[in-house]
Amino acid sequence: MQDKDFTVLMRILDGEQQIIQRTDQKAFTMLSLLGVFMVFFIVHFTKMQMDTIIFLLIVIYFPAAMGALYFLVRVIVPRVKNIDTPNKDIINPTFFGGISQFASPEDYGKYLRKITLDDDKLYEMFAGQVFAIGRINSRKNDNIRKAMFYLVVALTSELLIIMTLAYRRAYSYLSENTFYYAIGVFIFSILIITATRTKLFHR
Q1: Which end of the chain, N or C, is surrounded by fewer C-beta atoms within 10 Å?
Q2: 82: domain range?
């Protein structure tokens, strides 16, 4: 096996492993953020004065929070379907699933040495590992995108609940124009967010 091919394969493998680590870090950060907001919501849930608007926002919040939690768990523990290989007698000694099939460390060492003596088998072994990690990364990224969507929906609905309750509590102390100021700030925020996503702010 040529050293150049092996070097390229190792770089790809290292890059895929780094992607897994970064994706897991994102998932744990999002879980922590979701947990903080859920605790805050549950603590103040009994103090809310229920009406149609609050009820509708709560109906949106709970399914969105559960969806975010579900997909974040799927990021941490992804489910990847097995692909049938032409030669099922070959054991991949680079994963715990393959390592656990050996009865003793000696058997594992002998099999690993046998693989390393054959350049073609060694290359196929690492290529199979890269392929497996790539499929795991693909599933993780798909789940993290879904979790991000549900998390944004959950946090947005929770913030709207807080804003609604705060406005109603302070309504008697506010002037008549405060409501229009709030709408203006909301529209201005949407315009700013939309502008930052356009090519005006991108070189």
Answers
A1: C
A2: 3-201
